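SAMPLE LOG
Freezer: B-3
Tube label: C17
Construct: single chain, 50 aa
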Amino acid sequence: MIIAKGQGNFETLSNNPSNIFFLFKVKCAVIANLVNQPIGMQMLVHSQLG
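STRUCTURE (predicted):
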């Protein structure tokens, strides 16, 4: 299990087929639309396992 902190890690590794959990704050509209949450929301997201 890997915990990756920060929106940048989510942006670059979210399609990686690994057991990664992302901890970040939504900071832009693109990511807000992707995770279907408002800007400013604190997130804990699990990667999509391949």
